[in-house]
């Protein structure tokens, strides 16, 4: 498997563990900085918390690149970050994105929030086009920003976790087990959150395979999916600041 980094005989379970432990270290550090007790020491609102999350992904990517480059002489292309337009599966991407969009909008239209809710989605309702038009710049900025974080996470989901499972299991089982593993990476044990991540990683793995093991199709999907999830289900709490 030339597209599987673990087919390189120099790599083994040790490298896998180092990558996962690095991810947990960065995630826990990011959580601590954004946690309420620490955040009380300095002013951290939703925008800054989001920025910290993006920065943590950047730090993780730098660590992984240095690790692979120094030990194995890998470059970004070797790690899967090689843009090839012909390998982007636009048909699968458009089909799945349309279905996901319809599902998310249906949830949003039927979402009834009480005053104690921790969700602050953009409420579409009768003002659908007005809301989309007024918040379009924010949605575009979010999508572009999430394109980077999605790239880092898709590297982790597909090039690391799925790649290792795919060496020893049929692709179908590799998708299921890697998605289960990936859904626990965020240290968020809410069943609904785990289910959302599980489904999104299953789709990402599928897009990765049908795109001839190219990362950019699942990256585009995942950044779009996260934008929908944040805007129309979880919500931009900082819009109301």
Number of DSSP E strands? 0
What is the assembly state of the chains in this entry?
single chain
Q: Structural class per helix/strand content?
A: mainly alpha
Order of helices and strands: HHHHHHHH
> Which blocks of ≥5 consecutive residues have pLDDT under 50?
none
The number of helical segments is 8
Helix and strand layout, with pairings?
Layout: H1 13-34, H2 36-39, H3 46-72, H4 90-109, H5 128-168, H6 171-182, H7 191-210, H8 216-234
Description:
The chain is an all-alpha fold. The chain has one domain. Helix content is 68%, strand content 0%. The chain is built from 8 helices and no strands. The longest helix has 41 residues.
TL;DR?
It is built from eight helices and no strands.
Key features of this structure:
241 residues
